[in-house]
Design brief:
By secondary structure, the chain is of the alpha/beta class. It folds into 2 domains: 176 residues, Rossmann fold (3-Layer(aba) Sandwich); 188 residues, Spore Coat Polysaccharide Biosynthesis Protein SpsA, Chain A (Alpha-Beta Complex), CATH 3.90.550.10. The chain contains 13 helices and 23 strands. The longest helix is centred in the N-terminal third of the chain and has 14 residues.
């Protein structure tokens, strides 16, 4: 997967990179990917080493807003432009832009439809860092912050070879110089308000880049770190990558919610199918177990006609109940109610029906795994050439899901978005709609 896709870069996005372990290389990789279709401006709010001048096709030196006048012309001739101040006296580094020049740069790039990439602190080639008091310098107009960590620091000693400002890291984590850095240490530092989240403006998205995921062991370690840092609601996702490679991203680990639709009155069956007992438990319980066991979090159960009874049979389960007073107006109302509850903090959602007891956690887990690998807009199981449920909907589809009306789920979106199929056995085609279906279900107990 491209880094641009994993970071969900779109036109006019402003991205600040912080941390250590590959910021400059990540910016270089992202510039190459984006500039094929959109202009890119690269800058720094601190300092940039002179050997990074080749990160863009053109270089503009600007010490004040007036010296940015050539930028529009340069963007007309080049796909990428680096903008810095003068060389720092006594150092082989370009000076960053002051606040007024930085804000003027943002205005010009936005008008030009360019993506703006900002290196917001330094790390002296280390793989992990704690920010000093003056760092990072993240402008208020940024809409995405990417803290970077090099996974080769896992297992390394806490010293200046691996860690920039190791004494600050030791203080934040309660360690002693020379101690070995474990997964929990890295995860704690990245998600600490005085560490990886320092200086991030409110309401700005954070996607952590776990770089140097070059071996199966590193990828596995990165996955464990990702699971830990997602405990912080400020972090949307963790990107496991090796940014020196083309298509560098291995997986994107983010929250995938489950929405169990259990609000209907089951007129065709003649009894509430979400409450039908099978193998000693009501069907809605089986749907919830598939969601929880498949790694979905949070899990929402949308209730309506049998709200009280559903609450009772799911008492003690790790679910959020959402009541839909408009359940009689069709499935779309329950879909909207459940999606509204979770959409702000998740990468995707899996919609589960409460009348498909043969859908299990293995299938749900397969959907999540495929989404982490591809970020495909739609991922659905297929059996015997027939599309089945449940379906995973990436966040790019959420506006279209909200537009669904009546007694329709998300099947209309298959004509609007690209999709990936998960081939599965035909048992998942079973759903409970009629007395005959109920007889067949009893035979499977």
């Amino acid at each position: 997967m491209r880094l641009a896709d994993a970071l969900r870069v779109n036109q006019k996005r402003v991205i600040a990179f912080t941390g250590a372990g590959g910021k400059s290389t990540a910016i270089d990789r992202l510039t190459k990917e984006i500039s094929v279709s959109s202009p890119v401006v690269v800058t720094t709010t601190t300092k940039l080493h002179r050997n990074q001048s080749s990160i863009a096709e053109a270089h503009l030196i600007a010490q004040n807003p007036g010296e940015l006048s050539r930028l529009s012309t340069l963007l007309g001739k080049h796909t990428s432009v680096l903008v810095t101040g003068e060389v720092v006296e006594g150092e082989s580094k370009w000076l960053g832009l002051d606040q007024s020049t930085s804000e003027a740069l943002h205005t010009i790039t936005k008008t030009a439809g360019a993506v703006l990439l900002i290196e917001a602190d330094g790390a002296r080639g280390c793989s992990l860092k704690a920010p000093a008091e003056h760092e990072p310098v993240i402008p208020a107009y940024v809409d995405l912050v990417v803290p970077v960590v090099g996974l080769d620091v896992v297992g390394a000693a806490l010293n200046g070879k691996w860690v920039h400002r190791p004494e600050l890291v030791a203080s934040l984590l309660g360690l002693t110089m020379g101690d070995r850095l474990g997964l929990d240490h890295v995860a704690s530092l990245v998600s600490d308000p005085s560490g990886g989240l320092k200086g991030v403006p409110q309401n700005v998205e954070v996607r952590v880049l776990l770089n140097k995921a070059e071996t199966p062991d590193r990828i596995a370690e990165g996955g464990k770190i990702a699971g830990r840092i997602l405990a912080s609601p400020r972090i949307s996702a963790a990107v496991l990558a090796s940014v020196t490679k083309p298509n560098p991203v291995e997986v994107v680990v983010g929250r995938v919610a489950g929405v169990v639709l259990a609000a209907g009155d089951s007129r065709r069956l003649g009894q509430p199918k979400q409450l039908v007992n099978w193998r000693g438990r009501p069907l809605v319980w089986h749907a919830v177990q598939a969601a929880l066991g498949g790694g979905l979090s949070p899990v929402v159960v949308v209730i309506g006609a049998e709200a009280k009874s559903v609450r009772q049979v799911l008492a003690g389960e790790r679910v959020i109940f959402v009541e839909n007073p408009e359940w009689a107006d069709g499935l779309s109302t329950s879909l909207n109610a459940g999606l509204s509850e979770v959409e702000e903090h998740v990468e995707a959602v899996v919609l589960l029906l409460s009348d498909m007891p043969l859908v299990d956690e293995a299938l749900v887990s397969a959907l999540v795994t495929e989404h982490r690998r591809t970020l495909s807009p739609l991922i659905a199981p297929r059996a015997g050439g027939h599309r089945a449920n449940p379906v995973l909907f990436d966040r790019v589809t959420f506006p279209a899901l909200h537009a669904v009306q009546g007694d329709h789920g998300g099947r209309g979106l298959f004509q609007l978005f690209s999709k990936v199929w998960i081939e599965w056995d035909e048992s998942i085609l079973f759903d409970l709609d009629s007395p005959e279906d109920l007889r067949r279900l009893r035979e499977l107990e």
